[in-house]
Amino acid sequence: MNAAVPSLRVRILAGRQDYLVTWAAMRAFTEARETTTPDELWLLEHPPVFTLGQAGRPEHLLAPGAIPVIQTDRGGQVTYHGPGQLVAYLLFDLRRAGIGVRCLVGLLEQAVIDLLAEHDIQAERRPGAPGVYIAGAKIAALGLRVRNGCCYHGLALNVDMDLAPFARINPCGYPGLAVTQVAAHAPGLKLAALAEPLARHLARQLRQEPILNAEL
């Protein structure tokens, strides 16, 4: 590996990771990191949960039912996480990289677009509405939190999941927004097959060298 290229430590976590536990771990990592701490990428699934962004409006929760609702500290409105969705949490030093949040959002979106293109899925951005879309339907949501020049949270890519809970909310604060998933466009493609490729695409966009499942 070129010593001049910073490393991105990638953790692919097995099983379904509790949202509150993971959120606390991201905050703790960000609070403790130093100027030389390598950036990290956590890839995982959550059990069913709705999360409401820091400035999220409760009226976008239409009928959550028995699915837990957690007010979190990321940007954005309400979204749903559940089995079959690939969540990528990026713990990244923006100040060290010399980029702003808007630029980072564009890099995250491009990584997903490039990943989907490998499977002949044409995806795109939508002006003024962060995320990745296919023919107007959202396939990936983004939300970040920045503290002391470092970010956490990240993106959620719908792969092969039950999309019904999205009907219980206004996804990302947009009434009637359609959602879609990878399985609708590339049947048989599973989450496990996309985790490592997504890590590599994200690392490429960030100009870093991915170290998969590094000892942390």
What would you say this structure looks like, in words?
This protein is α/β, with parallel strands linked by helices. The protein has one domain (7-204): BirA Bifunctional Protein, domain 2 (2-Layer Sandwich). It is 23% helix and 30% strand. The protein is built from 4 helices and 10 strands, in the order βαβββββααβββαβ. It has a 7-stranded mixed beta sheet with strand order 7-8-9-6-2-1-10, with helices on both faces. A hairpin with a 2-residue loop joins strand 8 (137-147) and strand 9. It is globular and about 45 Å long. 40% of the residues are buried. The mean pLDDT is 95.
Please write out the topology.
Elements: E1 7-16, H1 19-32, E2 39-45, E3 49-52, E4 69-71, E5 78-81, E6 85-93, H2 94-97, H3 101-117, E7 132-134, E8 137-147, E9 150-158, H4 192-206, E10 209-212
Helix pairs in contact: 3-4
Brief summary:
The protein is α/β, with parallel strands linked by helices. It has helices at 19-32, 94-97, 101-117, 192-206; strands at residues 7-16, 39-45, 49-52, 69-71, 78-81, 85-93, 132-134, 137-147, 150-158, 209-212. A seven-stranded mixed β-sheet has the order 7-8-9-6-2-1-10, sandwiched between helices. The chain has a three-stranded mixed β-sheet with strand order 4-3-5, with no helix packed on it.
Give structural attributes:
about 220 residues, alpha/beta, BirA Bifunctional Protein, domain 2, 10 strands, about 25% helix, globular
